[in-house]
Amino acid sequence: MADCSLDLLGSSNPLSHLSLLSSWDHRRVPPCPALQGTPLSATLSLVMSQCCQKIKDTVQKLASDHKDIHSSVSRVGKAIDRNFDSEICGVVSDAVWDAREQQQQILQMAIVEHLYQQGMLSVAEELCQESTLNVDLDFKQPFLELNRILEALHEQDLGPALEWAVSHRQRLLELNSSLEFKLHRMHFIRLLAGGPEKQLEALSYARHFQPFARLHQREIQVMMGSLVYLRLGLEKSPYCHLLDNSHWAEICETFTRDACSLLGLSVESPLSVSFASGCVALPVLMNIKAVIEQRQCTGVWSHKDELPIEIELGMKCWYHSVFACPILRQQTSDSNPPIKLICGHVISRDALNKLINGGKLKCPYCPMEQNPADGKRIIF
Ligand SMILES: [Zn+2]
């Protein structure tokens, strides 16, 4: 192809293409002796030259397209080199990888928990065996149950999830969960999809909605309305959205969220949260490392249990409120908790202790004098 295109591009005489084509023909079909040496008619010559021009244009276009793609592809390699630092280890203290047994067990436990949460039960079991990690059956049980029900839901089997939701009804209601209603609704919709012969069954199943009448009145009205179109077929009615497959994904999501919060588990495993946070923090840490090295102040970051600066991880990683003392500009902690003064202003205990003068405290915001012992600890 490359040789042929070069030849075509290199010549402007249409007849030279003809010789090229005829030499190509020779290899397959024996030439007809009667036509050899016969000059081409004017029309044929024109058609041939037009054809050759077309081929030439196409090849030129291909060549320029290829050039474009090649330049983009070659840029990918450079982008990878630029964005991936081969020395990521530099931001992690070597001590982290020290094979202290306790640390290793914590890491293994986090991996096992993640695998259980992802439903990879056999891999988790294997890891437990190989690392001689002893996992309590009580620890495993919630994950096993969760995965059994989720697997059934993925196969569009509502039975186990309904059973679970009914047995946990009270606690689900306390959570303001609509899981049980959504499961009953899905069962009802499946009956509707069965056509007129399922009408009686659907009507009798509708009594399951009774406990949810107040909270889900609108949705129940929609389902009752859809009964009118049962004979015509739900898929041809204005209610065809009820048959949408996205309802299954929604149910799986609701079940995972509510069951996790009922079982005291986080929706995402601690390992995946740590990993995601690490991915956000890593570029910042790499920059800090570069700055520290440039200014030759390597002692600044000791790698102990803290980071050299605060790194913003986004709202998703906010788990609780924090309070920073307006006087000392430090985040409060258990040893230095926030204290509310009687005037209503809040400062940290360390700041309060520093402001005491002659057994009295003058609020730094309003000049109210007060007894330091009147301050009350605030818990967020
Ligand atoms: Zn005050």
Automatic annotation (TrEMBL):
InterPro entries: CRA_dom, CTLH/CRA, CTLH_C, Fyv10_fam, LisH, RMD5B_dRING, ZF_RING_GID, Znf-RING_euk. SMART domains: CRA (SM00757), CTLH (SM00668), LisH (SM00667). Its EC number is 2.3.2.27. It is found in: Cytoplasm. GO terms for cellular component: cytoplasm; GID complex; nucleus. Identified in the CTLH complex that contains GID4, RANBP9 and/or RANBP10, MKLN1, MAEA, RMND5A (or alternatively its paralog RMND5B), GID8, ARMC8, WDR26 and YPEL5. Within this complex, MAEA, RMND5A (or alternatively its paralog RMND5B), GID8, WDR26, and RANBP9 and/or RANBP10 form the catalytic core, while GID4, MKLN1, ARMC8 and YPEL5 have ancillary roles. This is RING-type E3 ubiquitin transferase. It comes from Nomascus leucogenys (Northern white-cheeked gibbon).
